[in-house]
Every structure is written in structure tokens, then in C-alpha cells.
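Input C-alpha cells:
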């Protein structure tokens, strides 16, 4: 996949960004380099490799690994209403935002 300058302009418009020509060119090169890496990763033969739910799963097969995770505990009070007080529009505890994608 390779992006064109028109694609960068459209993405910038959707993101409400104003890019200079130099910034647009640099972004085009960076995104195309990223997509090249994704293409390379997609070409790797992964037949016979079991998917992992977590990167440490592979370590568990070779050595017993116990993760020392703390119990989930509430550490702060719920401040949703205070945080949403300055929002222009809220409904049922959710922020309402204008539609920006066509």
C-alpha cells in the first residue's frame, strides 16, 4: 500500500490539521515507510506458530513465571460529573461530540 499526496491532504482535512508542504511531504514518507514495514511483517511465514494472548506466554512454556500483579482496587473516587461539568454536551454520562466523519 502506498499513499499519495492527495491521501495525506484528505487525512489532514479529516483530522482538522493544516499542514505545510514540507510537513505533508515528510508525513507521506513516514507513513509509506510504516506501510512498507507492515507489508514485510505480513510476508513472514507464521505457519505452525501458536498465537499468544500475551508476550510472556512464550516464557511460561520454558520456565514457570508468576506475574506479581496487584489486586484491582478503587484508588480514586468517581469524579465523572465534576469532569463533565465543563463539557458543552453530555448525555447519560457520555460526552457528545459533533460528527466529523462523512
Amino acid at each position: 500500500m502506498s499513499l499519495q499526496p492527495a491521501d495525506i491532504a484528505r487525512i489532514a482535512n479529516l483530522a482538522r490539521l493544516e499542514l505545510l508542504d514540507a510537513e505533508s511531504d515528510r508525513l507521506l514518507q513516514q507513513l509509506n515507510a510504516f506501510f512498507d514495514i507492515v507489508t514485510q511483517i505480513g510476508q513472514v511465514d507464521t505457519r505452525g506458530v501458536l498465537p499468544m494472548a500475551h508476550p510472556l506466554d512464550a516464557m511460561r512454556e520454558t520456565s514457570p513465571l508468576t506475574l506479581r500483579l496487584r489486586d484491582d482496587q478503587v484508588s480514586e473516587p468517581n469524579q465523572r460529573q465534576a469532569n463533565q461539568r465543563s463539557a458543552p454536551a453530555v448525555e447519560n454520562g457520555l460526552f457528545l461530540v459533533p460528527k466529523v466523519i462523512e
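Strands lie at 90-91, 94-95. The chain is about 40% helix and 5% strand.
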